Amino acid sequence: MGLERKDCRKWRSVHPFTENDNEETMKDQVKMICIRKSDISVSPLAKRDGSKYQGGFTLIELLITMVVFVFAIAAASQIFTNLLTQFKQQSKIAETNIEGIVGLNLLRQDIEHAGLGLPWNVDENSVADTNADNNFWDNVPGYNESPITGAVPDPAIYNDAPNNAPSAFRSGNGDGAGGSDYLVIKSASVSSDRAAGKNTRLSSTFPYVRTWSLHSDDLYNSDRSIVISPGSTESNSRSLLVNGGSYHTSYSTVSAYAPAEDTDVRLVYGISDANPANSLRAPFNRSDYYISTDNVSPRCAVGTGVLIKATLNHNTADANVFNETPLLDCVADMQVVYRNDTGVSHNDLSTLTDTDGDGIIEAHEIRDQLREIRVYILAHEGQKDSNFIFNNFTAEACDTCIRVGSTAVFGRDFDFAVSGITDYLNYRWKVFTLSVNTDNLR
Fold this sequence. Notes:
alpha+beta, 8-stranded antiparallel β-sheet, 16 strands, 17% helix
């Protein structure tokens, strides 16, 4: 049987093709199979006997391969999910820590500056004691502080206005959300306004006020300011001056409060930036710290809140009496503890003493006794972790309690079982502690 010449080109290029050459000769000489003319239609995978070649994978092999592949994908997916969950958890923990550093340092700074620029008395030559009660504060025009807002607790209950000198601190024990404390700080500098807390000296002659080497330390002409006479006795120290029926003025006209004597110096404190009403609600700034249950982050445990700094808005034309700034998310409790100098141990953790027996803790009693404030804040780090079980409770208090404070008396044993906080075991709880000396009270 003849051979197809086109299938033997390689051999033919070396040897002439003849019909006498057989297939075995070609195979031996060039190691190449020449397909017979009758075999051209046979598959290259065919066996020599002409039967079909049964190649490929069985169904069982395919199923096993698919199962292994599915398990590999599932394992990789689980690893990725775990990594993503851990990343989210750690990023939320880092977020909480950053909030704690920034927000709690704002609180620390406000406590340190409490009392700065606060007037202690009213200049008796500036106003008349119209009701002859020997109290000039109730004759200061426009000394209102916070109006009644209807909030719970209402900020107005922490007012010193209109009858009393401003106290550096006011607080409500258990007045806040969930039995937390409510803290009020008053000073010239506790506002975020550019003018707040800036100060200078006012003399009797031109240019009247001293300017500072850094322009950023100077008040602007439009800033709302107060003027205080330093005084020398208990009854006239740091006396608020009233001129023309007003205890405040723009910085550009502060010379109207200048002393008559060359030896006399007065102090000027910036309170607020200019506002459309040219108004002040009080001769100081005020910030209230409390836990709010409004606008809580969805990552927080149900039943927790947000630590808020609410600053008194001096613009009486604005409907918002306070401007709120959130400081820390996911807060369950805040406790405020006073360390006082009572004259006995000089370093007591105790309540302030009403030394004059009038039933009111007045500004001078706070100045005389208070030496340090401690603030304890209970919050959770990160978000809910179903694989985590919290177990760092205060055992001597109860099985579900965390102590927020130094003792159960000077602080609180916070019981999660009755707090209304759901799934509290799946959160990482932490007590932030601030201990701040009150150096600006005196």
